[in-house]
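User: tokens in, sequence out, please.
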């Protein structure tokens, strides 16, 4: 059994953020208004923001880019690394607004992207991506662009995101890709429950990531955990509407990095499609999931509170109809309680070639319409300890 201790890097990150906030008096400040940004929500301020970034990035001092109150119209922007400044804080008191025409951003991969940066903090503010018009286009089955991720960090280190509001993203709200030492805290994410592919926070190919005290209301996974995620800590996250917290989908590629050392605790799911989910396509893969702890979660009318699905195929379209090569082992569910909106509250549908092993249920209490719920097991090995309701099929 793994020892439940909060990762040491999490404490270091919190101290780092506190020092960053308290040392702003020694920081060189750049106000976006000084570079020509207009807080009227109508004048394109993209160039001004990029100029402010260039000035901060080229400074040898710790720097702050300040965005005063107001609404700032911005197109797609990439903030590149290789900076001289050891620490860049972007303090936002206003709202960054996407163009009204969804096609402007829709053809881009990202709206606001940070690439190869080190020591960047985003504090406060709101990002309004104006996604509903694109969602409506997709709902009408018209020829629509895919849409842009609102905020992405790629190949970056020592990143802080605090007290940010992401509203109506076209696609994913926040993506952490190929990063190290990331601390996300007090973030709010809001999108309609039927908004397509609007994952709240997506993490992949990254290590030492903390997601703390966040509220996520969206149309897809509240948090999605992709291949190559290592040392992820999620705590005090509220999810709903949404598709829950998901590891996967995995087995997209034959050679795929594994997911390991993930702790998700003190989470609340409210009328979500899923609660705690691991999902993989039924196809060959070298990937794996191991060392996952799901602890102290509350389910309120959740369709699938606990689920492992190794035959994942949404809408039964283009299903590979093979056998999942993902190896799933050492998964703990402890202190999971609440209500399921379907009769099967626990479902383990694992690979016949690679059965799930080391699955542990402990102090689980899930009911269905104030009646006993059911469990379903296929190709899974494990044990149940203490109270487990519904009755374990392990």
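Assistant: Sequence out:
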């Amino acid at each position: 059994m793994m020892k439940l201790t909060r990762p040491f890097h999490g404490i270091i990150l919190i101290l780092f953020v506190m020092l960053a906030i308290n040392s702003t008096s020694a920081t060189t400040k750049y106000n976006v208004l000084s570079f020509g940004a207009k807080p009227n929500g109508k004048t394109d301020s993209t160039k001004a923001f990029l100029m402010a970034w260039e000035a901060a990035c080229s400074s040898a001092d710790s720097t702050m880019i300040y965005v005063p109150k107001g609404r700032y119209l911005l197109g797609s922007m990439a903030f590149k690394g290789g900076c001289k400044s050891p620490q860049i804080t972007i303090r936002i008191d206003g709202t960054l607004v996407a163009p009204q025409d969804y096609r402007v951003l829709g053809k881009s991969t990202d709206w606001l992207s940070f690439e190869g940066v080190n020591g960047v903090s985003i504090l406060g503010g709101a990002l309004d991506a104006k996604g509903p018009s694109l969602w409506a286009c997709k709902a009408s089955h018209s020829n629509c662009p895919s849409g842009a991720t609102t905020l992405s960090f790629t190949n970056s280190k020592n990143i802080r995101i605090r007290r940010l509001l992401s509203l109506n993203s076209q696609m994913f709200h926040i993506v952490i890709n190929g990063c190290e030492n990331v601390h996300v805290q007090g973030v709010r994410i809001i999108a309609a429950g039927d908004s397509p592919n609007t994952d709240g926070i997506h993490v992949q190919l990254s290590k030492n990531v903390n997601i703390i005290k966040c509220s996520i209301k969206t149309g897809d996974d509240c948090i999605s955990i992709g291949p190559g995620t290592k040392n992820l800590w999620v705590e005090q996250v509220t999810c709903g509407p949404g598709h829950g917290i998901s590891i996967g989908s995995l087995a997209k590629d034959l050679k795929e990095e594994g997911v390991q050392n993930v702790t998700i605790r003190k989470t609340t799911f409210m009328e979500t499609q899923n609660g705690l989910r691991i999902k993989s396509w039924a196809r060959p893969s070298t990937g794996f999931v191991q060392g996952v702890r799901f602890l102290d979660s509350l389910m309120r009318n959740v369709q699938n509170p606990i689920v492992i699905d190794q035959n994942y195929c949404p809408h039964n379209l283009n299903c590979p109809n093979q056998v999942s090569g993902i190896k799933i082992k050492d998964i703990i569910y402890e202190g999971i309680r609440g209500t399921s909106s379907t009769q099967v509250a626990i479902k383990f549908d694992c690979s016949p070639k690679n059965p799930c092993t080391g699955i542990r249920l402990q102090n689980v209490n899930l009911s269905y319409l104030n009646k006993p719920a059911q469990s379903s097991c296929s190709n899974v090995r494990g044990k149940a300890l203490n109270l487990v309701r519904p009755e374990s099929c392990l």
